[in-house]
């Protein structure tokens, strides 16, 4: 009698249920929690640690950084000349010191090694010669690579000819060494195609203003494709469309996607793009991301935070004030860009201390919104189970902007109410990779209860997990124990 009362009380307290003679339906919607930040893998914020120079932005307040909600990885964008000052002699310490400090704490790393910068030695580039700044090492030019010197923002800089055979040969050797050291490491999130254009972004707006040709872009892509066999490669949208007719843009887009690359956009909330592309929230090529996002994570890099504020396009705590020029707040526009791109990784491009202090609530909201964000809608299960094969059905929904790109397992945890003994059943594939945003998915799970389990009453919970960690879902902690969500009690006969 006491056990029956316990069962009814438990179900009434945790969930609302509809019972039939053989099936109980658990309604999770009243227990959804959309406020709590879910610290999940394979998605989230990234911080520009090296931002095309060795002084910005780094991490000034490490404690604040560690408390930043949903911070996933550090982004290292660095001139080639810093890393190979002499041919075949590498300065890996610039990278390894960061890896050794942050990777053990669970952070990932992503890379963009650039061949052209606009800025002065030794802050922005690793070398200079006769007052000319070199992002590509000086020795590459000495080896016979052709290039041109241009001036911008008070600095004279050397740009290689993007398809020069000497340049491509030396670039290939560098990336061969880089890939041998870092390709496929579990903490590497992605590697940008950074060998063309200003800041490795694929355009030449601060130098020749001559668009890279399709041939030049493909030959540079091929260097990366040849050397990186395991890490995700990323092309910027500028690399694909800058100064090109649509037919060439589509040719390069197809080439990138068919070779397994994904796309990033470095321009959301740039004043120019807000003016030109208001209907897509400053995203210049929304068509790049749909349907790409269904199979590959996409990456958003917001305009430099300081520049957005200087342009008058970010006002109020959490970017909440309406910008009269656009009729929307900065928070709305940034959220719109994230939704348009279906972005899994998002970066605010500034000092972490400044951005988080001024936008704490928005940081939490977008940490959940980017990538996947799972909620259980309901669960149908039998209160009477048997040893051997059993089934239950969970209805899932994804309130994020993208699917997950890793298979997550479903774990069913059974706790004997008398002995406290815990048993687990693992279903290797929860089906999660097919859960696109905004839809409901009913997934029937078949599992086997071993013959050696004790008979009696069991509390049943479920959870998602991956080798990289537990996958948190958007329900109240009151119906969770050690991260596993309550289903109810079953009787094992």
Task: Explain how this protein is built.
By secondary structure, the protein is an alpha/beta fold. The chain folds into 2 domains: about 1-35 and about 375-490, Immunoglobulin-like; about 45-370, Glycosidases (TIM Barrel, Alpha-Beta Barrel), CATH 3.20.20.80. It is about 25% helix and about 30% strand. It has an 8-stranded parallel beta barrel with strand order 3-4-5-10-11-12-13-16. Strands 18, 20, 21, 23, 24, 25 and 26 form a 7-stranded mixed β-sheet that branches. α6 packs parallel to α7 (about 215-225) and α7 (about 215-225) packs parallel to α9. The radius of gyration is 26 Å and the shape is elongated. Residues about 1-20 have low confidence and may be disordered.
């Amino acid at each position: 009698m006491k056990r029956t009362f316990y069962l009814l009380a438990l179900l009434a307290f945790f969930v609302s249920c509809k019972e039939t003679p053989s099936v109980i339906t658990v309604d999770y919607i009243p227990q959804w929690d959309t406020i709590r930040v879910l610290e999940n893998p394979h998605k989230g914020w990234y911080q520009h640690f090296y931002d095309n120079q060795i002084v910005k932005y780094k991490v000034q307040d490490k404690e604040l950084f560690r408390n930043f909600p949903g911070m996933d990885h550090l982004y290292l964008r660095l001139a080639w000349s810093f890393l190979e000052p002499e041919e075949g002699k590498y300065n890996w310490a610039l990278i390894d010191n960061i890896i050794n400090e942050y990777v053990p704490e669970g952070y990932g790393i992503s890379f963009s090694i650039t061949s052209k910068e606009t800025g002065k030695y030794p802050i922005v580039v690793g070398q200079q010669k006769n007052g000319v700044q070199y992002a590509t090492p000086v020795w590459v030019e000495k080896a016979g690579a052709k290039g041109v010197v241009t001036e911008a923002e008070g600095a004279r800089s050397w740009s290689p000819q993007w398809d020069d055979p000497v340049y491509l040969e030396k670039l290939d050797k560098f990336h061969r060494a880089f890939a041998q050291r870092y390709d496929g490491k579990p903490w590497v999130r992605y590697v940008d195609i950074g060998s063309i254009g200003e800041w490795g972004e694929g355009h030449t707006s601060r130098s020749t203003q001559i668009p890279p040709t399709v041939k030049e872009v493909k030959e540079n892509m091929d260097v990366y494709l040849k050397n990186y066999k395991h890490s995700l490669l990323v092309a910027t949208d500028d690399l694909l469309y800058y100064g090109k007719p649509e037919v060439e843009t589509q040719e390069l887009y197809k080439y990138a996607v068919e070779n397994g690359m994904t796309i990033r956009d470095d321009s959301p909330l740039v004043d120019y793009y807000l003016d030109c592309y208001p209907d897509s929230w400053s995203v210049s090529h929304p068509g790049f991301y749909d349907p790409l996002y269904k199979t590959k994570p996409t990456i958003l890099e917001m305009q430099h935070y300081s520049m957005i504020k200087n342009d008058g396009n970010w006002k109020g705590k959490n970017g909440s004030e309406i910008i009269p020029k656009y009729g929307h707040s900065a928070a709305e526009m940034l959220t719109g860009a994230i939704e348009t791109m279906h972005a899994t990784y998002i970066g605010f491009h500034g000092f972490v201390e400044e951005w988080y202090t001024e936008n704490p609530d928005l940081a939490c909201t977008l940490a959940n919104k980017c990538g996947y964000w799972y909620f259980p809608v309901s669960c149908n299960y039998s209160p009477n189970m048997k040893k051997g094969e059993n089934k239950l059905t969970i209805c899932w929904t994804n309130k994020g902007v993208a699917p997950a790109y890793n298979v997550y397992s479903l774990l069913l945890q059974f706790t004997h109410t008398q002995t406290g003994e815990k048993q687990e059943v693992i279903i290797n594939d929860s089906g999660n990779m097919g859960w696109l945003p905004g839809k409901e998915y009913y997934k029937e799970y078949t599992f086997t209860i071993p013959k050696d389990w004790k008979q009696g009453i069991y509390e049943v919970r479920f959870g998602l997990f991956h080798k990289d960690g537990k996958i948190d879902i958007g329900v109240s902690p009151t119906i969770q124990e050690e991260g596993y969500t309550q289903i109810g009690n079953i009787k094992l006969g």
